[in-house]
Amino acid sequence: MSLNTNNQKRNFNATVKTKGEIKKVSDELIFVVQKHAASHLHYDFRLELDGVLKSWAIPKGPSMNPSDKRLAIMVEDHPYDYKDFEGVIPEGSYGAGSVIVWDNGTYTLADTIEANEVENKFKSDLKEGSLGFILNGKKLKGEFALVRLKTKQENTWLLIKKKDQYASDADVLKQDKSVISNLTLERLEK
Ligand code: MN
User: Average per-residue pLDDT in the chain?
Assistant: First the structure.
């Protein structure tokens, strides 16, 4: 069975809008963080925009501590349906290794703007290389920023937690189970 078939099957779950609903309200944009044991363990941070998932690979994973600045490499957009993918990507395929959905939820932009302007604002912020957003996940909560570094490689960003009531120096990565299946990566591989 191909990955795509898997993803389509996983798409119709009660907590998320189904593919048939084309236009969602803008304040229900989703985010997902997938923990991915590829050749190097990393966390894939994905924000829904324009029907796809804007994606960053974060080698050290996200942090709730505002003094941590986590390198985030922008990678290619992923299809929206990928948000629920958990499983083992076979050897020889791109991204071979196992994947769990480490966190998911919704997000809004940090700036207070009209709901129907969120995606346009996001797009211009993305171009500017400075995104501020508020996550409402099971593990990640509160305000974050993604800031593009002024380096030759245009895909190099930092993910930074902003100071708010959710900021913490406790290691959020110790919560290592999938928010979908409750499996750890290690359990999934068995
Ligand atoms: Mn990955």
Answer: 86
